């Protein structure tokens, strides 16, 4: 009923909003503004690379985290993207410096987030420079990540424990499979690819509801039996946490690219439909932090989810019929227009972050209505993907 009731209304709204959207999106201007602000952030950070820019603290100070925090690869990755666009050697040097600062995490077997940490930084660096040292880090990181996969369970373990469960798996983990697929291409070792496929398959079977919204956390026992389907960062166990929907969409789009297995393409299309035509998605395409949270004027948005979705849709459009692809492009364009507006794009100040109004972990009272380093990363990525369409 959800699909039929809201599909046409959502389609009409999308069409009306996007009549002039493309003319309002000045990609070159936004990428140049992003480069200016990130040069400013480099100056603010100084010479040390011990702490990575993350967000803004409640007192207005810059929130910085160490390299073992899951977001450490996004700053270097954003710098690589901006160097790729501007050819500014200052940004190239900074990208290399901040990428190298994450290198010790290649041996970190205590986290599932090595895709975020290493692929966004070293992956982009290797793609652009082909430095052999970067390839070695990616392969070591993939090996470390693969130690968290247990064949009897069939998925990569996310956290070591959560609420008394010893094998929790979060939807975010779909974003780390790209590293494994790349490692197989770089090494010829099919095991990494096989782990990615196994994880994607079991996540598709267990994480998604009939409407293609996803649970945040699925907890397994030692032989792969599901013990609980709950949330950590969402409004409720049964709710649709906005960034979780974005991670799923992006992850299955990547898995289709890497495998050409139609089931992943269909999964991505279903997730996209759930998100794009949801009756609680605001007209500006920037979601509330959870689709099922009480939506009042004071309910926080999550601009990071919008940026991730825009980037995902601008890839997904390549794999579908032209008319559907245009729908994806139009939606992503509308999202980027909103993110580029004064409402969401920070401009001066804001410790040089680009995007405002992100929500990191509302239930933990952490990072609410603030910039988030990964919102910037996926915003830049989406702009670059849009630019290639022109």
UniProtKB/TrEMBL annotation:
Q: InterPro entries under this entry?
A: 6-hairpin_glycosidase_sf (IPR008928), 6hp_glycosidase-like_sf (IPR012341), Glyco_hydro_88 (IPR010905), UG_Glycosaminoglycan_Hydrolase (IPR052369)
Q: Does the keyword Ligase apply?
A: no
The UniProt keywords, alphabetically, are: Hydrolase, Signal
Q: Its Gene Ontology biological processes?
A: polysaccharide catabolic process
Q: Where does substrate bind?
A: 113, 172, 231, 243, 247
Q: Superkingdom of the source?
A: Bacteria
Report the GO molecular function annotations. Answer: chondroitin hydrolase activity
Q: Which SUPFAM superfamilies match?
A: Six-hairpin glycosidases
- Signal sequence segment: 1-21
> Transmembrane ranges?
none
| Pfam families per record | Glyco_hydro_88
- Active site per the UniProt annotation: 113, 172
Give the family from UniProt: Belongs to the glycosyl hydrolase 88 family.
Q: What is the protein name for this chain?
A: Glycosyl Hydrolase Family 88
């Amino acid at each position: 009923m959800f699909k039929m009731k809201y599909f046409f209304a959502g389609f009409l709204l999308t069409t009306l909003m996007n009549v002039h959207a493309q003319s309002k999106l000045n990609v070159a201007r936004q990428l140049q503004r992003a480069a200016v602000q990130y040069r400013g952030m480099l100056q603010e950070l100084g010479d040390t690379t011990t702490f990575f820019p993350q967000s803004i603290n409640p007192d207005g100070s810059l929130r910085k985290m160490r390299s073992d925090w899951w977001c450490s690869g996004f700053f270097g990755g954003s710098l690589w993207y901006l160097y790729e666009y501007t050819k500014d050697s200052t940004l190239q040097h900074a990208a290399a410096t901040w990428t190298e600062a994450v290198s010790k995490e290649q041996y970190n077997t205590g986290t599932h987030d090595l895709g975020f940490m290493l692929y966004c930084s070293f992956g982009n660096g290797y793609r652009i420079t082909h430095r052999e040292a970067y390839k070695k880090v990616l392969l070591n990181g993939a090996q470390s990540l693969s130690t968290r996969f247990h064949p009897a369970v069939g998925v990569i373990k996310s956290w070591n424990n959560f609420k008394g469960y010893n094998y929790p798996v979060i939807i975010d983990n779909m974003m780390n499979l790209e590293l494994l697929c790349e490692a197989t291409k770089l090494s010829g070792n099919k095991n990494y690819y096989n782990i990615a496929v196994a994880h994607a398959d079991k996540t598709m079977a267990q994480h998604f509801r009939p409407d293609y919204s996803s649970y945040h956390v699925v907890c397994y026992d030692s032989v792969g039996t599901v013990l609980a389907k709950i949330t950590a960062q969402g409004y409720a166990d049964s709710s649709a946490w906005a960034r979780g929907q974005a991670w799923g969409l992006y992850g299955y789009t990547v898995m289709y690219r890497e495998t050409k297995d139609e089931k992943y393409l269909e999964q991505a299309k279903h997730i996209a439909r759930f998100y794009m035509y949801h009756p609680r998605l605001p007209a500006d395409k920037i979601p509330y932090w959870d689709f099922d949270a009480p939506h009042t004027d004071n309910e926080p948005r999550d601009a990071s989810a919008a940026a991730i979705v825009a980037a995902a849709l601008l890839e997904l459009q390549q794999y579908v019929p032209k008319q559907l692809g245009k729908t994806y492009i139009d939606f992503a364009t509308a999202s980027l227009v909103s993110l580029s507006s004064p409402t969401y794009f920070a401009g001066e100040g804001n410790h040089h972050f680009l995007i405002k109004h992100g929500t990191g972990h509302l239930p933990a009272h952490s990072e609410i209505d603030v910039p988030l380093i990964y919102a910037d990363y996926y915003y830049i990525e989406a702009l670059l993907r849009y630019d290639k369409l022109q």
